[in-house]
Amino acid sequence: MAEPKEMITVQDLHLYYGQQEALRGVTIDFHRNEITAVIGPSGCGKSSLLKTINRLNDLVPDVTVTGTVKLNGQDIYAPNMDAVALRKEVGMLFQQPNPFPFSIYDNVIYGLRISGEKRKNVLDEAVERSLKAAAIWDEVKDRLHDNAMSLSGGQQQRICIARVLATQPKVILMDEPTSALDPISSSEIERTMLKLKDDYSIVIVTRNMQQASRISDRTAFFLAGELIEDGPTRDIFMQPQKKETEDYISGRFG
Amino acid sequence: MFRRNFEDELNDLHVRFSEMGMMVNEAIYKSVNAFINHDKTLAKEVIEADERINQREVDLEKRSFEMIALQQPVTGDLRMIVTVMKASSDLERMGDHAVSIAKSTIRVKGNVRVPEIEQVLAEMSTKVKQMVEEILDAYVKADMKRAKEIAAEDKNVDAYSDRIYKMCLSQMQENPDTIVGSMDYMLVDSYLERIGDYVTNICEWIIYLETGKLVELNSNVEEDNIF
Fold it and tell me: B5: which chain A residues are within 8 Å (Cβ-Cβ)?
């Protein structure tokens, strides 16, 4: 039987920081092998949404989440769900490249090592596979034991992508992954993303509208904690249904 | 819906534009053949096939709009897309003229024919067809020098047009039975002449593509002086 196209389904999701409601009943699907861009002004809830998908909000005190988030049909907020196992399935990339201050090799295998993998051939294979998939293998293959901090920002970010890929996730969440990078490094990351979607589902939060329109298959527009509109990127950027979306995309906001 | 990268989309746009050019070229060739051979079946074929040409123009326009909206192309990439949009509307008009020639074929009923004029029309259409083929090739190669040369060839088409016009006039004076037929010859002649002008337009777009400059080749002043 063919897999359903939805990889993540979010139903009536509410998220509160204390008394403040950051997400107000969001219902949205994220599709397999597609890039979904989440756009909206600061404070609209886009990063909060991303963090609920791999339960990073668990670490924030005083957070309440209601509604359901399912990964591959499985409720990730179910009591029997192991958050560490979940985060292996749902990798995350942040705005600032954050390699650990050790070698490229050790960075990539970090996730595997903490899950107990010790076999050298398995680790070697994972390093090569992940660095290749992150499109940085050719640049670093001769210096795998150099410190990852010595690389450029764009290279560091691709090392971080490789680190995410090493645990073989299903979903990669990206929170403004290129906003700290120069245009050339950004386009390298974008190219890598287009390649990665053959094997992964990607959700990217971005403030760069051009980036959303260039690389995403679907776009979701958020405003004040609500999903205003989502759909195929070409529809959202050519003919959005809601005036708020059109105003934001055309830069007529506020 | 799967997104592909910009280069692939641009390449696809090129291919689809070139295909449209070939469709139009075929329509022109068939329409003149149909006219000269009084082949109404072939003429109907040209009229029916025009729908595909029109659809292709709409398709190219839609793709171009999407690429502009979603990829925000600049410099040469932007000019490339603008060129396809503008030149495809020229191609579409050329296809409409082929349809007009085909319709003249269907209208003709027992006209007195003038083989000498038909001979010159056939030569003129061969020249126009050759120019259309050449311009498509120059477009694919973005060959600006060639585009200018092709535009210069339009004066040969205008010379044919002038010749046919004069031949028709003298035929009508000599033998009033040929008036209706000669009027049709003059119409077909003017359609072919217009197709030549659209080829010149595409030459101008190729120059724009390469230089970013909008130029006017073969200005009307010179053309009007032929008559």
Answer: 191, 194
The confidence score (pLDDT) of residue A221 equals 97
To the nearest whole Å, the CA of B68 is away from the closest chain A CA by 10
Question: What pLDDT sits at residue B226?
Answer: 46
Task: Give the per-residue pLDDT at B1.
Answer: 37
Look at residues A242, A197, A189, A241 and name the one whose alpha carbon lies nearest to residue A216: A197
CB–CB contacts below 8 A, A to B: 34
Distance CA B57, CA A1 (A): 40
- The verdict on B65 touching A (C-beta cutoff 8 Å) is yes
Across the interface, of A35, A194, A233, the residue whose CB is closest to B70 is A233
B3·A217 Cβ contact <8 A: yes
User: Is residue B108 packed enough to be buried (19+ CB in 10 Å), middle (13-18) or exposed (0-12)?
Assistant: middle
Q: Does domain A6-98+169-249 have CATH number 3.30.470.20?
A: no
Taking only residues 8 to 67 of chain A, the set having a beta carbon closer than 8 angstroms to any beta carbon of chain B reads: 33-35
User: Looking at residue B70, which CATH number applies to its domain?
Assistant: 1.20.58.220
Whole-number pLDDT of residue A59: 83
Residue range A145-195, pLDDT digits in tens = 999 999 999 999 999 999 999 999 999 999 999 998 888 889 889 999 999
Q: Is the dihedral of CA A155, A161, A164, A167 positive or negative?
A: negative
Contact yes or no for A216 and B1 at CB 8 A: no
Q: How far is B13 from chain A (nearest CA, A)?
A: 17
Q: Which residue has the tokens 């990539």?
A: A108
Residues 6+ apart with CB under 8 A from B122: B32, B36
| Structural domain count of chain B | 1
* ipTM above threshold 0.95: no
Phi, psi of A78 (to 5 degrees): -65, 150
Task: Report how far residue A12's alpha carbon sits from residue A28's, in angstroms, rounded to the nearest whole number.
Answer: 9
Write down the pLDDT at residue B227.
44
Overall average pLDDT of the B54-82 stretch: 93
CB-based contact (8 Å) between B70 and chain A? yes
pLDDT per residue as tens digits for the range B181-215: 999 999 999 999 999 999 999 999 999 999 999 99
- To the nearest whole Å, the CA of B168 is away from the closest chain A CA by 53
CA A124/CA A101 separation, integer angstroms: 20
Helix and strand numbers (H, E) in chain A are 11, 10
* pLDDT exceeds 60 at position A60: yes
pLDDT in tens, A2-12: 788 999 999 99
The answer as to whether B26 is a domain residue is yes
